[in-house]
Amino acid sequence: GNSVTQMEGPVTLSEEAFLTINCTYTATGYPSLFWYVQYPGEGLQLLLKATKADDKGSNKGFEATYRKETTSFHLEKGSVQVSDSAVYFCALKRDDYKLSFGAGTTVTVRA
Amino acid sequence: ETGVTQTPRHLVMGMTNKKSLKCEQHLGHNAMYWYKQSAKKPLELMFVYSLEERVENNSVPSRFSPECPNSSHLFLHLHTLQPEDSALYLCASSQGRGSTDTQYFGPGTRLTVL
To answer: Which of A44, A95, A104 faces B105 most closely, judged by CB atoms?
Structure first.
């Protein structure tokens, strides 16, 4: 079946540090891949997505590239801010209604 | 209003109460979803509706009863809940079921069962 594995947190960084959150997936066929972000007390917001191999999704300084050869979709940001403190979820979707989520990675950025 | 809205944002209820959660989407989507997010557990898909027809019901106890009167509104009726049902309940919508159809989430209802 489909599954997503994310690096375990929590991750604590200083402001302006480089952030990487690893995500790998298992799926048949050609899924789409997503990163969602959940700020404290809120629902999930779509951060970025990629729908085919070698696509790069980007938004708000975050980037992730769909790597079929390594079945990965790692999230990166070059210089984090305190406002980036949140829980980040990697997710996978095939041609059905089910969105398969990773466990989530809690990121805390200190000033 | 834009996107997906949910009311109430917070709800406290006793085990014998009956309450309802409401979700409304303003995106013109055809599919709507209920998810449960509990502490230390992965997100759980509860129900899926497409064009007002229930298409998935993932072994959810009968004390949770969904209703989809039209493609813009989704309700979750709650009765005789247990303390372990305390969680964040998230509503989402999407255009369809395709792999590129993004699910957009509401802010959630934080439910506490006493």
So the answer is: A44
**Percentages (nearest 5) of helix, strand, coil residues in chain A:** 5, 55, 45
Q: Around B48, how many Cα atoms within 13 Å sit in the side-chain half-sphere?
A: 18
Tens digit of each residue's pLDDT (9 = 90 or more) over B70-105: 999 999 999 999 999 999 999 999 999 998 999 999
Cβ contacts from A onto B, under 8 A? 51
Any chain B CB within 8 A of the CB of A46? yes
Residues of A in contact with B102 (CB under 8 A): 34, 46, 49
Distance, CA of B63 to chain centre = 14
**ω into B8 cis (within 30 of 0):** yes
CA terminus-to-terminus distance, chain A = 41
- Residue type, position A14, single letter: S
Contact B108, B46 (CB under 8 A): no
Q: How far is CA B97 from the centre of its chain?
A: 17
**Under 8 Å between Cβ of B106 and B3:** yes
Portion of chain B with pLDDT greater than 70, in percent: 99
User: How many C-beta atoms lie closer than 10 Å to residue B93's C-beta?
Assistant: 27
Decide if pLDDT at B42 tops 90.
no
Q: Do residues A87 and A102 make contact, with C-beta atoms less than 8 angstroms apart? A: no
pLDDT at residue A43 greater than cutoff 60:
yes
